[in-house]
Amino acid sequence: EKMKIHHLAAFVISFSTPFALAVDPSTLPWDNLTALIDDDSDNFHFASRDAWMEQCVPIFEREGFPTWFSTPPQDFLLNGSNYELIDQPNGLCADFLACAWTFCKFQPNVEDIVEDIDEDKWNLPYAVVHPLSVSHITASIAFAREHGIGMSVKTSGHSGVGASTDKDSLMLNMRRYPKYSGTSFLQCSDLSLNQTEPTHKGATTEELRNWACTVAKSRGINAVLRVGGGEIWDEVYRNMNMVNKNLPKPLYHIVGGGAGTVGAAGGYMGNTGLAGTTGMRLFGYAADQVVQMEMVLPSGDHVRFSPTEWVDDDQLAWPRTTKVTGWCNSNPVEDETKWLWEFCPQGAVNFEDLWHSVRGGGNGFGVVTSIEYQLPNYPGPLVLAKTSLNLAKEAPFPSALQDVVQKTWANFLIDSQWNPSAVGMTEEESNLCGGPNGGLSFPNLFGTDGVAFCHGNGGQIYSDTWARSVATSRDIFLAAGATDAQIDIIAQYVIPAPLGEFQDYAELVLANGDTPGVPPGRIEDQARPGVFLIQDRDLLMVPIKFLVENRDVSVPWLTSLGKTAPGSNYMMGGNIATHHDGTTATGAHYRETAFLYTYASLNADLISTILQYHTGGEGEPSGDFPPMAEFNHINGEIFGPLKTNWTKPCPSFFEVPSREEREELCTPLMEYIFGTKGLKRLEQIKADIDPDHLFNSYGSIGYRKEKDGLLSEPSSTSFSFPPHSPYLGLAIAMLCGMIV
C-alpha cells in the first residue's frame, strides 16, 4: 500500500491557484504549519517588532547609530560584526539596520525612527521558519501557497537593498539548515565516472554528485565541494583550508566572497559573486564555478539540475552548455540517504532557463538548498602586493614631476591588468593579482596606499614589471626634474608585502588575529555592519576597451582619480571573459569590464563619459537600454541614467531626495543591471517558474511593490506532492476522481 501511495505522490497535478497577498497574516492557522516543522528546536517564531528592537537595535545603538553624519563620520560599526546579528534567535537582524524599512531607505533621524517606526516603511516578515531539513521548506511553501502569503529567504542579510526580507512575508532563515562543506569534498580523479547522466529511476544524491564531477572534468577541473544553502564563506573557507591541509600538498582552490559572513550559496552567488580576494581574474566569478544546483522551487518541488550536454566553443575556455537536465526528489524526507531522484516530468520546468537565471539573475526563483562548486587547481600561496610608499614623505616631488609619475602609473595599470603584453607580461601573469576596493588600482602615489591579492609569484611579477616600466620612463622623469634618488624611490612603489605567504585567503585573514565583535578563529566580515549603506554612490562597469583604446580620455581620468580619490573600484578583467559556460545571466558587460567603479555625484561629468561609451555616444534613448551596472553591491537608492538622456546619471539622493521623483526620472535598477533584453528574459523565466510571485522582495526579478489583489491571473501550475505532505490526501482525492 505504501508503494501505491508513493507512486501516486509522484504524479504532477495541475490546477488553478489564484494567489493573493492581500491577506491579514494574523488570521492564518499558523498551528497547522508549526505542527509540521516544530520539533522542539525553536525553529518557528513570529517576527515581532519587540524582538527586533531587543535583539538587533542594541548592536547599533551601543555605538550611537554611527553614520557619515556622525562626529567624527563613521560609516560602519567599529566593535560589532554581522556574526552577532546573524546569530540572534529571531533571525531578523540584517547587516544594515535600515533594511528593516522598505528599500533599506536612508532615515536621517535613526534614533527617533526606531522608537516609532512608520507602518508604511516597515519591511520585516510576519513569521520566521529556520528550516532544519528540506521537508520544512516544502511544508512552508505549501502553507504559504494555500493561504496567500508571500515568502522571503535569508542567510545572513548582507543585501544592501533588503532582498532577503519582505513585509509580512513568511521568511525562511537558512542559517540552521544542514551544512555540507565540512564533509562533502569530492575528488573527481578518484571516481570511475559515467559518460552519460544517471537515467534510472531512484538515483541517489551520490550518483548525481558524481555527475557534477563529470561536468567539472569537462572543464579540466578535478574536484567539487557541496555547500549548503545556509552556509557562509567563513565556514566554507575554513573547511577548504582543512581539505588542502589533509592532502600531501595543497591541490584545490575555491572562488568566493571577501566577507566571512556573506552567504556562500544564496544571494551572493545568485547576484554573480565577485571574488576579488580569491582569484576571479584567474577563474571567473563564483557563479561560473557552479556545476550543479539543488533547490526547492515555488511549486514545492525539490530538484537538482546540471548541464548534461555541451560543445566546445572557440570563444570560451570551457565547453558551452547546450542542455540542462533536472531531477526531482520523489521522497524529500529529513533523512537525505532516503532521497530518490527521478527525471522531472517533461515540460514541467525549463531547466535551461532556470540554470541561466539562478547564476547571476538574483533571487526570487526558489530556495537554494545546496550548490556543487567546482574546485580549480591550486594557484599557489596568497601574497599581498602593496603600493606602500607615500612618495610625498620620502622626498620632495615638484608638482610637474608628480603629474608625470601619476600619468605613468595610470598607463601601467591599464597595461598590466588589461593589456599585459604591452609591459612584457603574459595574460596568466597579469591575472595572478587583483582585488576589491582598489587593489593595485588608483592610489595617489603621493598620499594613498593600495593592496592587491596575488597568487604564486604574482606580487613579485608586478613589482618587477613596474620597476622595468620606471626604468623605461627614466628619461621622461629626468626631464620633469627627477633626481636619481627619486627615480629609485618610484621604482620601489610596488612591493610584495612583508607579511609573507599564506596557504589561502582564510589563513591570511586569520593571521591578523582577533578583531572586535568577531568570534575567535572566524573570518572577519568587511565591511562591518552599518546603519545604512552609503546612498550617494552608484555602481558602473568601466569597459576594458574604453581604457585601452581611448588613452587621451582614460589616462587623464585615472590620473585625476589617483589625485582626488572620489570613488573606489573593484578590479575585473582577465579570465572572467572566457571562464564560464556561456549560459549565465551575468551580462556581457561583466565579461568585458576592467573594473567596477563606485562613484559619488561630484563625478557626474566623468561618469557621463563612461555612459556615452556604453550607449554608443547617443544620449537620446534609441532601442534597448544596454546593461551597465553591477549587482552584488547595489543599494536601495541606485537608479540608472536619466530615461530621457542615457549619458546623464540619475540625480543623487541628496540632489533629489524624493524616491518617487527619481523613479519617474531614471532608469529602473534591474534594467540598469541587465539591460532591456536581459531583464525581459529573466522576467519571463520568473513568470514561468513563479507565476504567482510567491517570492517577492525588492532587488529581485519581477518585484511588485503593490500587493493588493491577485498578483497574477489564476494559472495552471504544476505541483508534485511528496509523501509526507499535508496535502497528499487532497492530491490522492483529486487523482481518484480521474481514475476509472
UniProtKB/TrEMBL annotation:
Cofactors demanded by this protein: FAD
Which GO molecular function entries does the Swiss-Prot or TrEMBL record give? FAD binding; oxidoreductase activity
Q: Fetch the SUPFAM superfamilies from UniProt.
A: FAD-binding/transporter-associated domain-like (SSF56176)
Database matches in InterPro entries: FAD-bd_PCMH, FAD-bd_PCMH-like_sf, FAD-bd_PCMH_sub1, FAD-bd_PCMH_sub2, FAD-linked_Oxidoreductase
Q: What is the lineage of its organism?
A: Eukaryota, Sar, Stramenopiles, Ochrophyta, Bacillariophyta
In the UniProt record, the signal sequence range is: 1-22
Q: Could you identify this protein by its name? A: FAD-binding PCMH-type domain-containing protein
Identify the residues that the record assigns to the FAD-binding PCMH-type domain, covering every copy: 121-378
